[in-house]
Amino acid sequence: MCSSEGDCRPLGFLLGLPFAFLSLILSVVGIVIWIVGLLLTCICPCCLCVTVIVELALELVKAPIHVMEWFTEQIPC
Fold this sequence. Notes:
The protein is mainly α. The chain has helices at 10-43, 48-61, 63-74.
């Protein structure tokens, strides 16, 4: 993966693939939680805890991207 500065770190990308796969599974769980949370907020919009759960689910969906970025940053050029 290449960062915005143009430096490429393919080793970090390859080392991060298994962990990205695990976080991809977590993101699927996050999508399910997100859909259920959205349905619950439509039924009862006054539930604040459901909104927090939906925000957590969105972070789970973004997890594979965060994992791959972290791994590529850890490998020095």
